[in-house]
Design brief:
Helix content: over 70%
Order of helices and strands: HHHHHHHHHHHH
Strand content: under 5%
Length: about 300
């Protein structure tokens, strides 16, 4: 993800304001992004969609004509809809294979994962459209994660249980990573959950203010890309925990447990701090400038 953001920022930063340059940048960018997303897609659909969405937003901000972007995005949406309807032709989902007698093979390609993706969408829609009793809802094994997430959010509400007193974390799978936001609400309440959202929104707005101060395009696009990846990943995690999106495996940046995710997020912040250091002068530089100004004023007075 970092390589894609840096590459896009480099391409857009050196793009000239001519139709030929914009066309060249668009084709090179979409070819690279498409290849990377295609490699990620079989193992992690949500990460591929996140990276593709950030890339499209960067291209739009980079003044690439929207009609060119739609020529790529609309056919992909059509292929996704077609894949949803033809998914049953590729067999059963991973969950059904694990519960049945068929042995699950991790080496299956992404076409054989289509039933799994469709099953998650169908389950998400069914849980919204059809009202089930708590016993019926929790009786389905694959509703275990969203079910205990709902329990955690309901237990928190306006009467938080305080840190360390979560009940749902003892039963919720991946409570310390994929569903950590639900545990935060249980322990800190609704206001604690809102505070977490405000922190990510503040990060996005802070980066937006820094972008306005950038004199060069490359650091500006770097800031936009890094901040968008952190913000959108956090929003996807939160929407999954509050049952507004199908279940995915996106961690909450800087909050969820994980080694690689934490290191990569720190690299994003390192890039943003490096750019901000070139925009906002340090205290030493400001003192030097003030000293030079005062020295020049003294010389003028003499």
């Amino acid at each position: 993800k970092i390589s894609v953001v840096v590459s896009l920022a480099f391409l857009l930063g050196h793009m000239k304001n001519t139709p030929a340059s914009k066309q060249y940048t668009f084709y090179v960018a979409m070819s690279g992004v498409g290849l990377i997303c295609l490699l990620i897609l079989p193992d992690n659909l949500s990460t591929a969609l996140l990276l593709f969405s950030v890339s499209v937003i960067l291209l739009i901000i980079g003044n690439i004509p929207i009609r060119k972007i739609l020529k790529v995005v609309l056919p992909l949406i059509g292929v996704a809809i077609l894949g949803y309807f033809v998914a049953p032709a590729f067999g059963t989902s991973e969950e059904e294979n694990r519960q049945g007698t068929e042995q699950y093979d991790d080496s299956r390609n992404f076409l054989e994962r289509l039933p799994t993706w469709r099953k998650r969408i169908d389950r998400f829609v069914a849980n919204i459209v059809h009202e089930k009793s708590p016993e019926e809802y929790m009786g389905i094994d694959k509703n275990l994660q969203p079910g205990f997430a709902r329990i955690a959010i309901a237990r928190g509400g306006f009467s938080p249980k305080l840190p360390g007193n979560s009940f749902a974390r003892n039963f919720l799978p991946e409570a310390n990573s994929d569903f950590i936001y639900a545990i935060i609400i249980e322990e800190l309440g609704i206001f604690g959950g809102l505070f977490i959202i405000i922190l990510y929104i503040a990060l996005l707005f802070r980066c937006g203010r820094l972008v306005k101060k950038c004199k060069k395009k490359f650091p500006a696009f770097l800031l936009i890309g890094c901040s968008l990846i952190i913000f959108l990943q956090a929003m996807i995690h939160i929407l999954v925990c509050v049952q507004l999106m199908p279940v995915t495996g996106q961690p909450l940046p800087l909050v969820s447990k994980g080694g690689t995710s934490l290191w990569i997020t720190c690299v994003y912040f390192g890039i943003m701090l490096s750019v901000s250091r070139t925009i906002i002068p340090s205290e030493i530089e400001r003192n030097k400038n003030l000293a030079n100004i005062s020295e020049s004023e003294k010389n003028e007075q003499l």
